[in-house]
């Protein structure tokens, strides 16, 4: 049996902003049907990589392959039917209602809005239901709390019913119970529907608990890739985040748990100040 094609693949991918390199020559595969999470310090390039993989961010060199095809040669609608993205700070049109915003997720499926094709109505209802946002359907998005709004954006991405989901910090603004609910939802979309999920998360423990693979970025380069228990170690946390820690393991699941011990202090680079 030939191995499944990766859902997404980056070859020699570099991105620069105003001639300043932000991602440098990355080689990466996002396996089909798995949850992969990008982690790394602020400014390490996670959002830029997510956008580059979704064709939103132009590349300075390299290529991105979506299900075996060069994404830059594909029709926009074809890309949109394969891949749904939740950016870091999405903006809703002023005054739009929750139901209308979520319905916009159906755009790539080609029917004009408001015609209520059965598939569209089902997808929107299901997305509202699984994200617990049906009760807000008639309200303007800008009248919701940050966490409610975040769940509505997730609903919009789910309504697209794409096989690949790219989500930049989907748990931002959510309380702990809703964070876990979103991660459980993504896990069930993988298990029950075979979805491929690529996430950006800041919480390393949640990333480890819910991901098949972690990809760590540091200053625009890949610092580590692999299963959570191989990647999340004390030396990893010190090297990538500059944080001294103890890493223990959840007695029930075996997932790594990080006990912070303060900023990692490198050995003295210069002679101590005599004062
Ligand atoms: N539009 C832009 N123009 C210029 N520089 C940018 C732009 N967007 C991002 N950058 C810079 O690129 C680098 C990577 O940013 P990016 O948002 O990808 O990082 P990140 O890892 O997602 O960060 P965070 O964890 O803070 O969200 C940062 O130094 C950032 O300042």
TrEMBL record:
- Tell me the compartments it is located in: Cell membrane
Q: How does it sit in the membrane?
A: Peripheral membrane protein
> What's an example of a GO molecular-function annotation for this chain?
ATP hydrolysis activity
- What keyword terms does UniProt attach to this protein? ATP-binding, Cell membrane, Ion transport, Iron, Iron transport, Membrane, Nucleotide-binding, Transport
Q: Name one Pfam family in it.
A: ABC_tran
Q: What is its main location?
A: membrane
The record ties this protein, via SMART domains, to: AAA
Question: InterPro entries this protein is in?
Answer: AAA+_ATPase, ABC_transporter-like_ATP-bd, ABC_transporter-like_CS, P-loop_NTPase, Siderophore_ABC-ATPase
Cross-referenced SUPFAM superfamilies, in alphabetical order? P-loop containing nucleoside triphosphate hydrolases
| GO process terms (BP) | iron ion transport
What GO cellular component is one of the record's annotations?
Answer: plasma membrane
The residues covered by the ABC transporter domain are: 8-244
- Tell me the PANTHER family matching this sequence: IRON(3+)-HYDROXAMATE IMPORT ATP-BINDING PROTEIN FHUC
What's this protein's name? Answer: Iron complex transport system ATP-binding protein
């Amino acid at each position: 049996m030939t191995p499944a094609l990766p859902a997404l693949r980056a070859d020699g991918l570099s991105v620069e902003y105003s001639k300043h390199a932000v991602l440098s020559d990355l080689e990466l595969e996002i396996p089909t049907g798995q949850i992969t999470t990008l982690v790394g310090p602020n400014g390490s390039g996670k959002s830029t990589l997510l956008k580059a993989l979704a064709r939103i961010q132009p590349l300075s060199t390299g290529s991105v392959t979506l299900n075996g095809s060069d994404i830059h040669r594909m029709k926009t609608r074809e890309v949109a039917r394969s891949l749904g993205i939740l950016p870091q700070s999405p903006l809703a049109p002023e005054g739009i209602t929750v139901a209308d915003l979520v319905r916009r997720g159906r755009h790539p499926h080609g029917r004009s809005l408001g015609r209520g094709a059965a598939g569209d109505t089902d997808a929107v209802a299901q997305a509202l239901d699984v994200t617990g946002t049906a009760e807000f359907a008639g309200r303007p998005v800008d009248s919701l709390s940050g966490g409610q709004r975040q769940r509505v954006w997730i609903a919009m991405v789910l309504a697209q019913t794409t096989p690949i989901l790219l989500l930049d910090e989907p748990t931002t603004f959510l309380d702990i119970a809703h964070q876990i609910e979103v991660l459980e939802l993504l896990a069930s979309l993988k298990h029950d529907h075979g979805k491929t999920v690529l996430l950006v998360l800041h919480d390393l423990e949640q990333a480890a608990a819910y991901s098949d693979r972690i990809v760590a970025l540091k200053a625009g380069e890949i610092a580590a890739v692999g299963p959570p228990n191989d990647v999340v170690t004390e030396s990893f946390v010190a090297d990538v985040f500059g944080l001294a820690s103890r890493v223990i393991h959840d007695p029930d699941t075996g997932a790594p748990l990080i006990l912070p011990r303060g900023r990692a202090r490198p050995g003295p680079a210069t002679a101590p100040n005599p004062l």
